[in-house]
Amino acid sequence: MKIICFHEKSFTILNTETEFRVFTLMGPNPKMKREFPDSTRSSPFPDEVLERVLSLLQSPKDRSAVSLVCKDWYNAESWSRTHVFIGNCYSVSPEIVARRFPIIKSVTLKGKPRFSDFNLVPENWGADVHPWLVVFATKYPFLEELRLKRMVVSDESLEFLAVNFPNFKVLSLFSCDGFSTDGLAAIATHC
């Protein structure tokens, strides 16, 4: 178990099993600073140190909480996150996700509300995955994992996924509809 304590000009990483380290910083290194628009440096830690600290946080809730500390932490967290969970595909556009998180390798995307499982939503109500795949193909060609829940996934979308993501490894379709064995055959052939 690791415990991270932050102080004004240093932080401590306590590994309860073996080690104790204190890192002291003299201030940000201008050569190592990433450029973010409208960013003012409020943290004494360079972005690389913040990214390293954030990489030690495994819980998505913890990562989301520390991203609210200040703009620097928000930016560093966005550069170190490799998995994104989107609980409602209508709450954010794929372009905003791609702009906020540049190195995503894994995405969990939920579409229709739960009551759609009981046929309480009109037939062609939405939750189409294809617009998401088009954006992800340009921004995340290194995408490895896609978990979809209650999304409309066409055979064309599965073929697009199979052809445009060369490192793709994991596809999970939970309560999704709109596809046939032809789309699954494209995934099996290309991935």
Helix content: 25-40%
Largest sheet, in brief, is: 4 strands, parallel
* Basic shape: globular
What structural class do the secondary elements suggest?
alpha/beta
Low-confidence stretches: 14-39
**Structurally, how many domains make up the residues?**
2
Total DSSP helices? 7
* Residues in β-strands, percent: 15-25%
Terminal-residue CA separation: 36 Å
Domain F-box: 45-86
Protein name: F-box domain-containing protein
Keywords: Auxin signaling pathway
Pfam families: F-box_5, Transp_inhibit
Written account of the structure:
- InterPro entries: COI1_F-box, F-box-like_dom_sf, F-box_dom, LRR_dom_sf, Transp_inhibit.
- It comes from Salix udensis.
- Keywords: Auxin signaling pathway.
- By secondary structure, the protein is α/β, with parallel strands linked by helices.
- The chain has two domains: 2-80, Up-down Bundle (Monooxygenase), CATH 1.20.1280.50; 83-190, no CATH class.
- Helices cover 33% and strands 19% of the residues.
- The longest helix is centred in the middle third of the chain and has 10 residues, at 71-80.
- It is globular, with a radius of gyration of 20 Å.
- The model is unreliable at 14-39 (pLDDT under 50).
